[in-house]
Amino acid sequence: MMRFWFCCALLLGLLTQSGLAQPEAPTLLPVPAELRWGRGRLSLSTPLKLQLDNSPDPAVAAAVGRLLARLYGSAKPPATGPVLQIRYGRAGHAEQFDEERYSLRVTPIGVSIDAPTSLGVLRALATLEQLPIREKRHPYLPEVDVQDRPRFAWRGLLIDAARHFLPVPVIKRNLDGMAAVKLNVLHWHLSDDQGFRVESKLLPRLSQVGGANGFYTQAEVRDVIEYAAARGIRVVPEFDVPGHATSWITAYPRLASNDSAYAVPTRWGVLNVALDPTRETTYSLLDSLFTEMTALFPDPYFHIGGDENDGRQWRRNPRISAFMRAKGFVKADGKTVDKHQLQTYFNRRVLTMLQKNGKIMVGWDEILGPDLPKEAVVQSWRGKKGLTDAAQLGHPVLLSNGYYLDLNYSAASHYAADPLPPDTPLTAAEQKLVLGGEAAMWAEFADSTILDSRIWPRAGAVAERLWSPQAAAQDVADLYRRLPAVSSELETLGLRHRRGPEQLLTQMAGSGSTAPLRTLAEVLEPVKEYKRHFQGFKYTTQTPLNRLVDVAPAESEVARRFGTLVDSVVAGGTGVAGRPGRLPQQLVALRAQLLRWQANDPGLQKLLALNPALREYGPLSTQLAAVSRILLERLTQLQTGQPPTVAWRSAARATLNAAEAPAGQAELAIVRAARKLAGV
Ligand code: ACM
């Protein structure tokens, strides 16, 4: 008995290792389904030794190799030391929605991962990568028991490589980012009005003409698919038809719905140019292309777009209108032609081609209609209703509404969108049709320098929404606490969401310091939604994306933190006065921040004046300084207990109204919080 207690005490001593508790707030993202922290730790000073018997999937050893290299540099695995034991049943197939669940245990003597398939192991390794506590000189893994599984099988990221061509390394590093947060579908938007980005050997003009400024060879596509598969990620291509296809028509004018001569457009916007759905030659060309592309892309799903064709070209062409009448594609009045029925006819023909090649068709929610075969998957982007309508009609569905990263909304807003919210009107059977969702990164305003910063870290919020149990993913403040850690992790993986904008700043600053520009840029955000198209600056595909608006984060972390500080001060109330102990830190921090912003303006104005491309941002720096001055006065009022005068309030209101005006398609992200603090 003594011996037993002695052993227990020894074990307990090992586990608690001098009684140090785990960090109270670990930074795992997405939050695992079940998680129990122990009190022990596993030192990372000695590299882990891999124990992997019987590994039918080479992706596992490769992923472990990458992880260990990142943890320890390129050190060779030691002969002895703590063990990383991995056991799994069989090779997993992402494209078959194979099992991704796993268990991961870290104890003071080693790490063990168990999973039914290799996909689960890859997900476990992504969790393990987020575990190390990088305490100075003594990095360690905290003791933990994780039992994890995804909420949704389809957790995607759409990357639009059509609007701006994105070279293979850009796609690959974003695949690394996806794997880090357990996203598992790359939706590769490969064609649009402005570009056709894949080599076709049967229809070479598609990429020669549509991809004149960049396309992927078939070898490169295979390389990306292999790279993705090694990370448990599927690649679903999108070839957008019948709208968004001007590049196709430019290459093959016989596809056009009118007699116009087309060039690959350099302008943005919904062009409402559409393929002619009445000619058999259109279908024979599509059949050739889709036969070639369905062989190139092994995933069973194949996206045909189908969005944003208002049918104006079809209605205006007497021959196409006559076709619609002859087929009975008319509205309830019996006379007006119905473009939707013609598009459904087109969709059905495309669906037959895809089915012949063993594929399941996916399309945007415009493809939905009573005659659409149930097998077609509907991706809802225009509203939540698209998802419920489609599921109620028996279609598998995906949610993208709420997940459009290019609208420059906050991570919190993406987090709030849920494919199956608690108040979903769907029945249990209909809910089973909800495959998941996809973050969408449309790239009118993103080239290869800027793209990563428009995706990350906000896509992490979508990743968590789609992976974690609903109940475990509700705390927005905690999401924001974890996102910076993910952001740092992603930089070490090779993402350039921090370095890309920094590179632009360096170019702008020339021989001067980047600091004053950065101070302004980091409290700016690009104007929201698609307002950037409508603010006096004409963008084309040729416009360089190298202005301060391109450096400005989609969601300003500095402004968000400022807002949090303001909230805590305001929650403290005007009772700050006379109670100096009440919120000293927040007040000191706020005052320091405001003084920095105020002091930034004079030097920055000199720099802006020297560079014509930067001058347009002068007013924003002026406004930032003016708002700071008002808020410094407000802090003094709060601290001295002096109520603001009517004149002060009116001047403050005028300053804050002026500060709302965008410049250079960017806006100050601190105005709402400033209003709160000023109380106007
Ligand atoms: C879309 O955003 N047009 C699908």
UniProtKB/TrEMBL annotation:
KW Nucleus (keyword) present: no
What keywords tag this UniProt record? Answer: Glycosidase, Hydrolase, Signal
Per the UniProt entry, the signal peptide is 1-21
The residue ranges of the Beta-hexosaminidase bacterial type N-terminal domain are 26-148
Q: Identify one Pfam family in the record.
A: Glyco_hydro_20
State whether keyword Signal applies: yes
Naming one, the record's GO cellular component terms include: membrane
Ranges of residues in domain Glycoside hydrolase family 20 catalytic: 152-469
Residue positions of the active site: E308 (proton donor)
> What Gene Ontology terms describe what this protein does at the molecular function level?
beta-N-acetylhexosaminidase activity
**What's any GO biological process attached to this entry?**
glycosaminoglycan metabolic process
| Gene3D superfamilies, per the entry | Chitobiase/beta-hexosaminidase domain 2-like (3.30.379.10), Glycosidases (3.20.20.80)
Family to which this protein belongs: Belongs to the glycosyl hydrolase 20 family.
What is the protein name given in its UniProt record?
Family 20 glycosylhydrolase
The organism of origin for this protein? Hymenobacter montanus
Lineage, uppermost ranks:
Bacteria, Pseudomonadati, Bacteroidota, Cytophagia, Cytophagales
